[in-house]
Amino acid sequence: MGFGGPHAAFFATKDEYKRSLPGRIIGVSVDSNNNYALRMALQTREQHIRRDKATSNICTAQALLAIMAGFYAAYHGPKGLKLIAERTHGLTITLAQSLLKIGYNVINKAYFDTIQIDLGDLSNAIHKDCLDNNINLNYNEKIVGISLDETTTFEDVKTLIRIFSKVKAIAADNLTIIEATKSTIPPHLNRQSNYLTHPVFNSHHSEHEMLRYIKSLEAKDLSLCHSMIALGSCTMKLNATTEMIPVTWPEFGKLHPFAPADQVLGYYTIF
């Protein structure tokens, strides 16, 4: 889960290596009604390929993350994702401009959600105060990286600004928090094409709509609720419901892959 990164795994390769890819390859075909359809084009499962060449097990752990990422995109849709991105970028601009105002050097002038700050000799002091406030940053000698995302609040940004100000002995009453104005992303990098145009990403934007859509997909599946499971369908379905509950626990889902070792001792014990 989160300790490996809160995302599905995607990769690209040359055509000549396609038979070494893990998992299954979906290709475009034409059905009996001459409509375009997506179908299984290549499988590297043990049932369908020489066992010594099978690579299907590599991707098993990524399936759930891919499903969650897909539903996240479907629920928010292109408009929702854009709003999330704009809010995150706005908070990052607010943080960067406020730190510049109190005398810090923001190294990268163009950014979306991550900035790098030259701390000089203040790194240890910043590190200590951040830990006291339950904040982890990415430290690299005298440079610190700060990444924001959709879970970041304006209060989080203000806390960071207060910490960085305190180290420079700037009183809280004298703090200036600069609201985000113009984007720092160069215009030539702005996307012009449409994205997530399929109806599935533009139809299910309420809790009930998403619930019914997920239920409709479930109804198409064959599980232990209906019968014994055919060979090749057993990977996830034989997990008991209680075994899947920890997916919702913050100790698994909210753990950052770069978290300090002393904060993940329980995870290390399990795995």
Topology (SSEs and partners):
Blueprint: E1 24-30, E2 36-43, H1 60-101, E3 105-106, E4 114-118, H2 123-132, E5 138-140, E6 143-147, H3 154-167, H4 207-219, H5 241-244, H6 250-253, H7 265-270
Antiparallel strand pairs: 1-2, 3-4, 4-6, 5-6
Helix pairs in contact: 1-3, 2-3
Written account of the structure:
- With 271 residues, the protein is an alpha+beta fold.
- It has a domain at 78-189: Aspartate Aminotransferase, domain 1 (Alpha-Beta Complex), CATH 3.90.1150.10.
- Helices cover 34% and strands 11% of the residues.
- The strands form 2 sheets. A 4-stranded antiparallel beta sheet has the order 3-4-6-5, covered by helices on one side.
- A hairpin with a 7-residue loop joins strand 3 and strand 4.
- Helix 1 (60-101) packs across helix 3.
- It starts with 23 loop residues before the first strand and ends with a helix.
- The model has no long low-confidence stretch (mean pLDDT 85).
- Residues 1-164 form the Glycine cleavage system P-protein N-terminal domain.
- This is glycine dehydrogenase (aminomethyl-transferring).
- It catalyses: N(6)-[(R)-lipoyl]-L-lysyl-[glycine-cleavage complex H protein] + glycine + H(+) = N(6)-[(R)-S(8)-aminomethyldihydrolipoyl]-L-lysyl-[glycine-cleavage complex H protein] + CO2.
- Its EC number is 1.4.4.2.
- Keywords: Oxidoreductase.
